[in-house]
Amino acid sequence: MAIFCTDAGHGGTDSGAAWQNVLEKELNLRYVLAFNDELKKRGHQVWTTRKTDQHVPNLTTRCQLINAHHSQGTPKFDAIISLHCDVAAYRSASSGRYMANEAVRGFYAIYSRESIQGRDLAKSIANEAKGNGIAVKDGGKMTILIQS
After folding, report:
1. Which ranges of 7-142 does DSSP label H, i.e. alpha helix?
2. pLDDT, tens digit, for every residue of 102-143?
3. How would you classify residue 144: left for phi > 0, otherwise alpha for psi between -120 and 50, otherwise beta?
4. Per-residue pLDDT, 147
5. Which residues contact 95 (CB under 8 A, 6 or more apart)?
6. What's the rounded Cα separation, in Å, for the pair 125 and 108?
7. Contact 39/100 with Cβ under 8 angstroms?
8. Which domains does the chain have, with CATH numbers?
9. How far is CA 84 from CA 6, 61, 99, in A?
C-alpha cells in the first residue's frame, strides 16, 4: 500500500480564509482527518502535519520537515497532499461590502510538472470526480480545477 503525507492548511493563529464565521483552518482539519481515516481503512500509511488546531510552519519549513523525514531512512511518501478550502469573494460596487462569488466553486490539484506520478494522481482524482458528475477543467500543465 501507499504512504501519504497530508497537510491541513493553516492552523493556530493563522485562520486562512474566513466567511460568515467559518474558518478555513477548521474545514481543512476536519476534511484532512476524515481523509486520513479513509486512507487508513484502505490499508495506507498516513503521516500528517497537524491533528489539532495548532500552528503549521510556513511552506519552506514544512518542506524541510518532509526532507528530514526522508533523510532518517524512513520510506519516502508516495504522495504529499495539502488541503485548502479557499473562499471566492468580490466587493460590491453598490454597498462596498464583500459578497460570496457563487460562480466560483470547486477545488484544484497542483502537482510538479516533473512528476509523472503526481500528474497521474491528479488525473485519477479528476476522473473520479467526473464519474460522480462534477465538472472538471484542465488548468494547464500543473493544475486541474474540479467544480461542484
Report:
1. 24-41, 59-71, 116-131
2. 666 665 666 777 778 888 888 887 777 777 776 666 665 555
3. beta
4. 46
5. none
6. 10
7. no
8. 1-104 (3.40.630.40), 105-148 (no CATH)
9. 11, 18, 20
Give yes or no for a contact between 66 and 57, defined as CB atoms under 8 angstroms apart: no
Residues 6+ apart with CB under 8 A from 49: 5, 6, 7, 8, 56, 62, 65
CA 8 to chain centre: 7
Higher pLDDT, 15 or 104: 15
Q: How many residues does the chain have?
A: 148
Q: CB within 8 A of 30, min separation 6: which ones?
A: none
